[in-house]
Design goal:
Blueprint lengths: L6 E6 L6 H7 L9 E15 L5 E20 L1 H10 L3 E6 L4 E3 L5 H4 L5 H8 L5 E8 L11 E2 H12 L3 H10 L27 E2 L12 H6 L1 H11 L1 H5 L9 H4 L10 H14 L7 H10 L4 H18 L6 E2 L6 E2 L3 H11 L9 E3 L4 E3 L2 H6 L5 H10 L4
């Protein structure tokens, strides 16, 4: 008797909902039909921190929860490709009984009569269908150094909207973790997030895309439509999204001669230093590595190259000067006093100032000052310093 062949499915609940994104990993997926489903007993969360300094989607098992997504029919080669893509996740089997068609979608419009999954579901044939879901090995909520980035959100919404607006609404409303408070400490492997409403745990990176499997042109062209959808269904969290460019830290962190081991380690460290005001020294090596790793992003690459050259030159100059953000302006030794005065009169919510103390070869901030008023606008600071002849 011949053994029955098994059709494998992957349950896509994040970026894999988007045909454009999943086809980057498995090109044949662009031509395969994905089946919209709801999985009972699974909850989608912002909980997987990546080595690119962002937080991605994860799921956790919860009896009362439900999670909409798509079933992707995959062959052995594609399954291996998705395993490689989803490093840091475990591939876990789902029970066919817990997976069903999405009740609010029209049957005739979204489901084929010969759909392998639906036929197996109808016959309760568990021997010919195997459904997999990728579950994070380690879960942590979004944080300033690992924020939610808009290009990743856009990619998921693109996939959701290709199904229906109601499907996109369901994704937005049922996903937990748009703010870390939605994820209790016991739900994470570790709890190290003390993010407040003032800290940037959701950033708009459309001008300097962080997510590598997104489509920046599509994101920018659909920005108003997507933002309206998010604002409608997540108004409180959306109001705290920062519009500052995510990679502005390349101008915000100043030179310190420490070399970080890897690009992956450097990015979260730099992001944490910029957004939270922590004392972190980011060396020239970071900018060189950033340039090497951002060749596909011409705007970022150009900034990296420019910054590397400027910092190389700066390192040979007198160490009695202090460098300030954005315009690579050079200030005199009384600059900290003037900046403290500026902090007390300007409380715009964006990105904090960092000063370089060359005598100690480190980046420093006034912690007590930054704790109460840690955000000022780069443009305002630089204009203020220019107007007062500090620069």
């Amino acid at each position: 008797m011949l053994a029955r062949s098994i059709q494998h499915f992957v349950f896509g609940y994040g970026s894999l909902i988007c045909p454009h994104s999943r086809a980057i990993t498995a090109p044949d997926q662009a031509h395969k039909i994905a089946t919209p489903v709801v999985v009972h007993g699974v909850e989608r969360t912002w909980s997987k921190r990546t080595n690119r300094g962002m937080t991605a989607m994860g799921v956790r098992f919860s009896t009362e929860a439900e999670c909409v997504g798509v079933l992707l029919p995959v062959n052995d080669q594609e399954l291996s490709q998705f395993d490689e893509r989803e490093m840091g996740y475990d591939r876990v089997a789902l029970n066919l009984d817990n997976v069903s068609a999405v009740p609010f979608l029209e049957q005739d419009e979204h489901y084929e009569d010969d759909d392998v999954f639906l036929q197996a579901k109808e016959r309760n044939n568990t021997e010919t269908v195997q459904i997999w879901v990728y579950v994070p090995q380690r879960t942590l909520p979004p944080a300033p150094e690992h924020p939610i980035v808009q290009t990743y959100v856009d990619t998921i919404l693109r996939g959701c909207l290709s199904i229906s607006e109601e499907f996109a609404k369901e994704f937005i409303e049922t996903t937990k973790g748009w703010h870390p408070d939605e994820l209790s400490s016991q739900d994470s492997n570790e709890s190290d997030s003390d993010a407040s409403d003032e800290e940037a745990i959701w950033v708009d990176d459309r001008q300097d895309p962080v997510y590598i499997r997104g489509d920046p042109k599509w994101s920018r062209s659909k920005a108003k439509e997507l933002d309206l959808l998010l604002q409608t269904h997540r108004p409180d969290q959306f109001s705290n999204r920062t519009s500052e460019r995510y990679l502005i830290f390349m101008y915000g962190i100043l030179y310190s001669p420490c070399k970080l081991a890897t690009f992956a380690d450097s990015v979260p460290m730099a992001m944490h230093a910029v957004v939270t005001g922590a004392d972190k020294g980011i060396g020239l090596e970071l900018y060189r590595q950033l340039a090497n790793n951002s060749k596909d992003y011409q705007q970022i690459f150009a900034i990296c190259r420019k910054t590397s050259a400027e910092l190389t030159s700066l390192a040979t100059e007198s160490h009695s000067r202090v460098q300030i953000v954005s315009g690579i302006g050079i200030m005199q030794d009384d600059a900290p006093t003037k900046l403290q005065q500026f902090f007390r009169t300007n409380n715009d919510k964006t990105v904090p100032i960092h000063l370089f103390d060359p005598q100690r070869w480190r980046v420093w901030t006034d912690r007590s000052l930054c704790k109460s008023q840690k955000y000022v606008r780069f443009s305002n600071v630089f204009k203020h310093l220019t107007d007062t002849h500090v620069v």
